[in-house]
Amino acid sequence: MSREIVKPYLIEKDEEGAFRLTVRTTRFNSQGYPLVTATPVEESFKTATAARSHAKEYYGAETGQFATK
Hints:
By secondary structure, the protein is α+β, with helices and mostly antiparallel strands. It contains 1 helix and 4 strands.
């Protein structure tokens, strides 16, 4: 695994065409190695923009903190 910090919000499209949001938290162990915890949000969204808006409203996300898959 790389030592690069991952973006804290991941937006993925599922098999049904809905978008899913995953909130990722990065912390570092005593050797400075990143440990990432990913927590999926139960709600699905019709568009990626709706998922971004949800993250901004409920999690305080900012522009540039999103990754897509």
